[in-house]
Amino acid sequence: MRKGEPISSIMTKNVITLNSKDELETAEHLFKKNKIRHIPVVKGKSIIGMLSYTDLLRISFADAVDDDDETIDTTVYNMFTIEQVMAKNLVSVPSSATVKEVAEILAKKEFHALPVVDDNKLVGIVTTTDLIKYLIEQI
């Protein structure tokens, strides 16, 4: 394994984001269309929260089994805003953080994605899936 590998080498750089004014229906569409589980919520270039697909499942009757289903029951979504549902107290890492440092954070916490932030600007996202792919490449 490469010691001190920066997280910037494995993070997703072209991050799909939401803003707090977007609808939860939009978020679900993005989750399903892009087959992702976490979307940073931004204001300008600054991250203000993180929305996970699990957050949506907690408030809705979304069919977790059929991810290809394009029909969305928006009744429950209309009762909440993204800001009410998203995680706000985020842990973030700089792009210079090492893969090991990020793995240690994710191993200790109850979340599966970290925003990568440099100079208060979102520059990427790293997930447990990114780490697993990296480890597979090493063996």
Low-confidence runs = none
Report how far apart the termini are: 8 Å
Number of strands: 5
**What general outline do the C-alpha atoms trace?**
globular
Structural class by sheet pairing and helices: alpha+beta
Q: CATH superfamily assignment? A: CBS-domain
Q: How would you sum up the major sheet?
A: 3 strands, mixed
Give a structural overview:
With 139 residues, this protein is of the alpha+beta class. It has one domain: CBS-domain (Roll), CATH 3.10.580.10. 31% of the residues lie in helices and 20% in strands. It has five helices and five strands. It has helices at 24-34, 53-59, 82-85, 99-108, 128-138; strands at residues 18-19, 38-43, 46-52, 113-118, 121-127. The chain has a three-stranded mixed sheet with strand order 1-2-3. A two-stranded antiparallel sheet has the order 4-5. A hairpin with a 2-residue loop joins strand 2 and strand 3 (46-52). The longest helix is centred in the N-terminal third of the chain and has 11 residues, at 24-34. The termini are close together. The mean pLDDT is 88.
